[in-house]
Amino acid sequence: MQWSINGIPEDALSELDRQQLAERNARNLEEMFRTGRAPRVSSDTTFRAGRYDDSQVVNPDLYEFRRKVAESQGHSITGKFYMASLARYPGDPEAWIDSKSDVQRVCRKRRQTCEGEVTVKESEFSNDPEEPTEC
Predict the structure, then answer these.
(1) Scanning 63, 65, 83, 122, which has the fewest C-beta atoms within 10 Å of its C-beta?
(2) What string of DSSP letters covers 56-107?
(3) Closest by CA position to 17, among listed 30, 6, 2
(4) pLDDT of 124 over the 60 cut
(5) What is the distance, to the nearest Å, from the Cα of residue 30 to the centroid of all Cα atoms in its chain?
(6) pTM for this predicted structure
């Protein structure tokens, strides 16, 4: 009978893979025992939970401005919310996002490091000589 580790067949893992998985699992267990809580689930669903573009309600003119800027540049905002912390300028269409992978895509494109619910490290950038910035 073949067994697996985190869904990966045991024979497909190198010794380094096994060691890294064991270390990660040990860190997760240590955190659970220290805090008395299970690790937080961080899916696109939990990322989006409670987030919406409140400018639509609080400031309809601001929402309309952002929407018009995005649509004038060929971006659809359907199913997205505006994350002002990603905006390079007022109404930046790239700040309309719908998932964690959208945030990662924008940060990687701009060579911005990011840490928190979404993490993008400098090591994920191409070998382009531009200096990274933080988002």
Answers:
(1) 122
(2) HHH-HHHHHHHHHHHHHTT---TT-EE-GGG-SSTT-GGGEESSHHHHHHHH
(3) 6
(4) yes
(5) 24
(6) 0.61
